Amino acid sequence: MVRRRHEEEHENHERWLVSYADFITLLFAFFVVMYAISQVNEGKYRVLSDALLHAFKPDDRVPARFEPRRDEQSQPAIQLPIKLPVDAGRRRVEAKMKGMADDIRKVLEPLVKEGQVRVTESARGIAVEINASVLFAPGQAVLNDSSVRSLVAVAQVLAGAENAIEVEGHTDNAPIGTPLFPSNWELSAARASRVVRLFTQAGVAPERMAAIGYGEYRNVDTNDTPEGKARNRRVTVMILPAGESNPPAAAADAPVATP
Hints:
alpha+beta, 2 domains, 5-stranded mixed sheet, CATH 3.30.1330.60
């Protein structure tokens, strides 16, 4: 038998349609994804993602119908950040502290102008730094008569408030070594205690105050010059913000152990 000649297959010139259709499908999917991303909605994004996964990777475990939860449907497309209101109570406290600092500057205005007193405000509170030469004679812890009137004026400003007060005594690094004050620790503590006692006599509640002696170890200037030493010899009245107590309530309420 004569073998029939195999007929030559004709080339298919429409094969490009398959690639074109794939390209159009991918392009359509790309723009759908871009449009979905532009709408910031987590529920819709999850639905679209699951639908695309189901379309390109068929899986019987993925349900055919996708519906966002009700709470997701109710969410807005774009959620703007919420600006919290400023704490009105905090503003009142800050305004009260600023008013107190202004009152202290007013009653100590002559000493402030002379550079003998500095009134500063910080997150810790109001610091009234008084040069020791205004209050005490060298090596002594007895208040000068001329300084009592200024301290009483400060006490009158503080008496009407409820802020805790820390009175800090500071010295320079010159050793003292007297029978009454063996070191600068005793001298600085005695000076702070003397100011606290005067404040108490002027009407400031004693439970609001604490006397602290730092000696020569909390300098604000160098001890290598006479000017620096004069700056380091000081008494600082620290007025704490409202709400902070001294001593801490836990320590004050703690039971005292008996021997």
